[in-house]
């Protein structure tokens, strides 16, 4: 805003100065005081006041021009500084992203007495969790009713939605504890990577955190997103101050938007992330969620 005002004032001073100069010259010729290259200097003394005004105008224009030059130099310096900071951030970011990939590949364990490694281990965990949830819901009429209401595009109330969330939290925690040695390290590192990204790029003058969050998403499989979906809703996502910032960031930066519906414990659970525009949603389902916001 200041730059625009400065540019405007500089041009005003220059244009007024030029216009006044033209008027003076025209007046001199009109009065016949300038002949064959010789100016009547006696007449010129009458132009002193005008000359003073012209001097003020062009001096002002020059001052504003200097200010504009210094402003542009500062912009160039700030841009160079931002580039340096971005390079430093990206070096750390991609190193952390690579380390996350290594952590995932090093995970191993048994699921139902079968040994798995890396991505296959996470997929086996999600499969077991999904089957457990399906069996669990069949025994709870109230949870079934809420899920059915969502599938029929009838949005449940806040208390009902919270009931489904709390029930999922209890089931997930009991399941999480079975695989804590593997999942604990994985989720802590992933969430620290997201926090590092938001803390450094979700602020002025960058505000491009979503671009990097999308790069993280591109490295995650659908089954990983399915586990993140559950973990971020649970008490395991709470920080030391009992705040679930990771859930807020996942919603704000749409980390889960590309998840396959088959990787959800139940398709209707998408309702627990009201701000996320899941790609698998139908138009009516999007309208249902938009009414909740």
What topology emerges from the helices and strands here?
Blueprint: H1 2-30, E1 34-35, E2 38-39, H2 41-44, H3 48-106, E3 108-111, E4 114-117, H4 119-137, H5 141-151, H6 158-176, H7 180-201, H8 209-218, H9 222-231, H10 245-252, H11 283-292
Antiparallel strand pairs: 1-2, 3-4
Helix pairs in contact: 1-3, 3-7, 4-9, 7-8
Features:
293 residues; mainly alpha; two-stranded antiparallel sheet; 11 helices; 69% helix
Description:
The protein has 293 residues and is mainly alpha-helical. It contains 11 helices and 4 strands, in the order H-E-E-H-H-E-E-H-H-H-H-H-H-H-H. The protein has helices spanning 2-30, 41-44, 48-106, 119-137, 141-151, 158-176, 180-201, 209-218, 222-231, 245-252, 283-292; strands at 34-35, 38-39, 108-111, 114-117. Strands 1-2 form a two-stranded antiparallel sheet. Helix 1 (2-30) packs antiparallel against helix 3 (48-106) and helix 7 (180-201) runs antiparallel to helix 8 (209-218). It is elongated and about 95 Å long. The protein starts with a helix and ends with a helix.
The number of distinct helices, counting runs of at least 4 residues, comes to 11
Helix proportion: 55-70%
Name the poorly predicted regions. Answer: none
**Largest sheet features:** 2 strands, antiparallel
Q: Round the mean pLDDT to the nearest integer and report it.
A: 85
Distance between the termini: 34 Å
Order of helices and strands: HEEHHEEHHHHHHHH
Q: In what range is the share of β-strand residues?
A: under 5%
Content-based structural category? mainly alpha
Strand segment tally: 4
Q: How many whole angstroms does the radius of gyration measure?
A: 34 Å
Shape verdict:
elongated
Strand order of the largest sheet: 1-2
């Amino acid at each position: 805003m200041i730059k625009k005002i400065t540019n405007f004032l500089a041009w005003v001073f220059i244009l007024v100065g030029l216009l006044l100069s033209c008027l003076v010259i025209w007046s001199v010729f009109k009065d016949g005081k300038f002949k064959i290259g010789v100016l009547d200097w006696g007449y010129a003394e009458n132009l002193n006041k005008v000359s003073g005004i012209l001097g003020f105008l062009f001096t002002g224009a020059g001052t504003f021009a200097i200010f504009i030059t210094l402003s542009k130099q500062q912009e160039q310096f700030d841009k160079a500084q931002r580039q340096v900071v971005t390079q430093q951030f990206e070096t750390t970011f991609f190193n952390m992203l690579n380390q996350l990939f290594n952590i995932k590949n090093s995970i191993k364990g048994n699921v139902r007495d079968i040994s798995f490694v890396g991505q296959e281990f996470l997929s086996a965990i999600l499969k077991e969790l999904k089957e457990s949830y399906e069996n669990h819901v069949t025994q709870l009429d109230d949870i079934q009713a809420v899920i059915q209401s969502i599938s029929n595009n009838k949005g449940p109330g806040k208390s009902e939605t919270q009931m489904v969330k709390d029930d999922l939290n209890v089931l997930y925690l009991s399941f999480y504890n079975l695989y804590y040695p593997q999942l604990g390290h994985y989720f802590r590192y992933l969430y620290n990577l997201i926090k590092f990204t938001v803390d450094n790029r979700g602020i002025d003058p960058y505000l491009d955190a979503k671009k990097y969050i999308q790069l993280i998403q591109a490295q995650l499989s659908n089954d990983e997103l399915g586990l993140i979906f559950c973990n971020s809703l649970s008490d395991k996502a709470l920080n030391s101050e009992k705040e679930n910032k990771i859930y807020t960031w996942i919603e704000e930066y749409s980390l889960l938007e590309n998840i396959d519906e088959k990787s959800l414990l139940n398709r209707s659970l998408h309702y627990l992330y009201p701000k996320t525009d899941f790609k698998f949603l139908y138009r009516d389902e999007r309208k249902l969620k938009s009414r909740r916001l």
